[in-house]
Design goal:
Layout: E1 9-10, H1 14-19, E2 23-24, E3 27-28, H2 45-48, E4 54-55, H3 62-75, H4 77-83, E5 85-87, H5 99-111, E6 116-120, H6 136-141, E7 142-147, H7 161-174, E8 177-185, H8 188-198, E9 204-209, H9 218-234, E10 238-241, H10 243-249
Parallel strand pairs: 5-6, 6-7, 7-8, 8-9, 9-10
Antiparallel strand pairs: 1-2, 3-4
Bound molecules: iron/sulfur cluster (SF4).
Length: about 270
């Protein structure tokens, strides 16, 4: 099932497949306007990389997108119950313009016994979605991920990194699982700072390098891997070192906090 089909739910491949087995894309384009945005690169950049979000043309309207989502859930239910569902690769799912449909779909997925992960650079959705008062079932099955780079100036319209960190702490205190996407690592020192600020309330880190970036030295990344692994391990956290890191340093990473790409955030017994 390809990403460009009429199905909102699909099996990502390549680097996206390393991140999530099943994903859902309703929208393309994103107003956070990160200067390193992967949607702005490549042959599809003119459509995927728009500086505003809009429903994919495959859907007549939001109701049609939701109806197709429900049909996909029914069709792939056992696989989705096993692997969970990720929102989203082609926009930020918590933009004011698109978060309501994402949330409606997530609640439907949860009602079908599917675990859901959101990855966002927003921090201004907690009250709007009334997250504090959600049921235990919703809190148990939804994980909130925040991308943290430490560089607000490269993500001009997103919530600041400090606001995202504060939101992560609040959500963790409410009983939700949390994860951080430390990607791209722009400067390892800044990424390390993001880890130190979040490690007491972050259940999982996913760490990856800037694709095509050649300014790091191998030693710099090796030192970062050791320091970050130790810092995360010290508080009982988990880390998935992405292929881009392992490739860059040229070997696998052995650390007691380390997990594979298939680590189940919703099941602590790893
Ligand atoms: S939040 Fe993600 S999709 Fe949006 S501009 Fe930044 S990198 Fe692109």
């Amino acid at each position: 099932m390809s990403r460009n089909s009429n199905n909102p739910i699909y099996l990502p491949n390549g680097k996206a497949g390393e991140y999530a087995k099943w994903a859902c894309n309703f929208y393309i384009g994103c107003s956070n306007n990160c200067d390193y945005c992967y949607c702005k690169r490549g042959v599809l950049s003119k459509t995927l990389g728009k500086p505003y979000t809009e429903l994919k043309k495959a859907f007549k309207d939001e109701q049609d997108a939701f109806d197709r989502f429900k049909a996909n859930v029914t069709k792939y239910l056992p696989e989705l119950q096993k692997a969970g569902l990720f929102f989203t690769f082609t926009t930020d799912p918590m933009l004011k313009e698109n978060r309501d449909l994402h949330w409606k779909a997530a609640l439907y997925a949860v009602s079908q016994g599917i675990n859901v992960k959101f990855l966002t650079k927003r921090a201004d959705f907690i009250e709007h979605l009334d997250l504090e008062r959600q049921s235990d079932e919703v809190k148990k099955r939804i994980a909130w991920g925040f991308t943290l780079t430490g560089f607000d100036n490269r993500e001009p319209n997103a919530s600041t990194n400090a606001e995202r960190i504060a939101a992560m702490k609040r959500l963790h205190n409410m009983g939700f699982k949390t994860f951080a996407s430390i990607e791209p690592v722009i400067i390892p020192l800044m990424s390390m700072d993001c880890i130190m600020q979040t490690r007491d309330f972050c259940d999982l880190y996913k760490i990856g390098l800037m694709s095509g970036h050649r300014d790091y030295s191998r030693k710099e990344i090796e030192d970062f891997v050791v320091r970050a692994s130790d810092a995360i391990d010290m508080v009982g956290g988990k880390v998935y070192w992405k292929e881009s890191v392992r490739e860059f340093i040229g070997h696998d990473i052995e650390c007691s906090a380390g997990v594979g790409s298939d680590y189940d955030l919703f099941n602590d017994e790893w």
